[in-house]
Amino acid sequence: MILENGVVRTMEPTLPLARALAIAGDRIAGGIGTHETALASPDRVDLGGRCVLPGFSDSHVHFPTWALAQRQIRLEDTASLDEALQRVALAAEHAEPGRWIRGLGWRAGDWSPPTEPTKEALDRVTGDTPAALMARDYHSLWLNSAALAHANGDLEIEGGVVERDERGEPTGVLREECAWHFRDTYVRPTEDEMVEASREGIRIAIARGVTSVHDKDGWLGALGVWQRLRADGSLHLRIWQSIPAEQVNDLEALHVSSGFGDNLIRIGYLKTFMDGTLGSQTARMLDGTGVQITSKEQLVEIIRRGGAAGLPVAVHAIGDLANREALDAFEETRAAWQPLGLRHRIEHAQLLAPEDVPRFAELGITASVQFSHAPSDRDLADRFWGAKTGGGYAYRSLWDSGALLVNGSDAPIEELDPWAGVCAGVLRTIDGREPWHPEQRLTLEEALRATTVNPAWLARDEHRRGKLLPGYLADLVVLDRDPLDLPPEALPEVRVVATMLGGRWVHNPPPWD
To answer: Please, are residues 267 and 261 in contact by the beta-carbon 8 Å criterion?
Structure first.
């Protein structure tokens, strides 16, 4: 197959542009004029001036959870508690007997007037049907009385918070480990539900140019979901899978290390948490506020155990203290993991003290960030972090320091849409307002590298994916125009036309109008 009459952006600095691309089997055979004579009667695809890029990677997505969220009550854009309750009430009218009402996306900090959710408010619209609504950041859970009754008062978990009223009664809001324990114990989806939802989720993802994901739902048993989808021919993504850090002993006993798997599904890394989030006000800060989920000492042990098993670590860190202690732990253990070539990562890295910014590059720790979080979180960050926001979402500072950045969505916290993330990294605004901390903007080429080249490196796949070069897998996306030929303000107008995985069109095969 030859793709011609368009612009091919290879993402290789020594040969950034090609006027066409030759594909043989699942691999790129070369640029036009080089290898096309070796192809037997090649099909020719007229790009019609369109642009070809390496397929997009989402480097931080809770894929089955996001897929399930497409079928649940969505509260992201509710402007008040009353508006949120109205949506829940509508869903409650159609709730099946014996089934939970599930939803997500609320953020009390977005509501006007400012109001904290309570079980009593939820009871008014749900009655005796149990309801569980995850916050937008997935670190808080809003329950009604019928849901709370399932726990029979057993709500407290170390590393979590049970919000209580002046009488000491649970308000209906659980945070961090308390929220996750309740969710996992009483509201956990079945594998069948996840498979069905993820099948549709894959169709949405590939329509947005996604060819690979770094999945965070290892705790949910996502490996079983992916294997079932591969078996029935529905898996059109490459998976770099997280595993909960507490399962490191199981992997070590089985001699399963990072990279184990096949062409589509591979074991990637251990996942753990240092702290909470901005939205739940549980990010661990140098001023002493926030919630500690994993201590520095505990993280040191996780890194050492992971190293012994051949597994890198991805650690969630939001607050400036959480990030500092994560970096301290990687530094303390460097002699153990660096000779092994393990590629560790800090997830989010949302607020950094200035002196900690250069440490990512110095230690070789990847900043796994989400460009869309900066403009999405700007109002909350200004409210809760004030003058510190100069060190928040510091993508330009990290890039200039030499750190490796990879871009993800954190879906379902934000939508799984890599191009929207690229635009957010370049523009630092998503709603027509002036850019937020524009000094932290990236160039378009940098944002693209963080969404194509760098994620492949982090998954130890830099010699197979992330660029459009001979011998690389033919994972690519076709855009309706060349984004590097546009002014930045026009980038949101770019659309995905088609997606190819391993030389096979998986979304919207040609010809195109």
So the answer is: yes
Task: State the CB neighbour count (10 A cutoff) for residue 385.
Answer: 20
CA atoms of 11 and 15, how far apart (whole Å): 8
Strand-pair partners of 267: 241
- Give the per-residue pLDDT at 31: 62
CA pair distance 316, 293, nearest whole angstrom: 10
CA angle 61, 62, 67 (to 5 degrees): 110
The span from the CA of 324 to the CA of 359, in Å, is 9
Rounded-to-integer distance, Cα 7 and Cα 467, Å? 14
Neighbours of 219 (CB within 10 A): 18
**Structural tokens at position 35:** 């290898």
- CA-to-CA distance for 183 and 179, rounded, in angstroms? 6
Tokens of 161: 């918070």
> Which helix or strand (DSSP H or E) is residue 178 part of?
helix 177-186
Stretch (H or E) spanning 201: helix 191-207
DSSP annotation of 262 reads -
Structure tokens at 328: 């301290």
| Side chain identity at residue 77, one-letter code | D
Contacting residues for 248 by C-beta, under 8 A, at least 6 apart: 270, 302, 305, 306, 309, 311
Q: What predicted TM-score, i.e. pTM, was given to this entire model?
A: 0.90
Helix locations, 208-354, DSSP H = 222-231, 248-254, 296-309, 320-332, 334-337
Per-10-residue mean pLDDT of the chain, 513 residues long, equals 96 94 94 52 89 98 95 92 95 84 91 93 94 91 95 92 94 94 91 96 98 96 97 97 96 96 97 94 95 97 97 98 98 97 98 98 98 96 93 97 98 96 98 96 98 98 97 98 97 98 98 91
CB 331 within 8 A of CB 324: no
The CATH number of the structural domain formed by 2-55+472-507 is 2.30.40.10
Q: Could you tell me the two tokens for 185?
A: 């114990």
Residue limits of CATH 3.10.310.70 in the chain: 72-186
CB atoms within 10 A of CB 462: 15
Q: How far is CA 182 from CA 141, 188, 360, 505, in A?
A: 9, 9, 35, 42
Q: Could you tell me which CATH class the domain 72-186 is placed in? A: alpha beta
Residues of the chain with CATH 2.30.40.10: 2-55+472-507
CA distance 466 to 474: 10
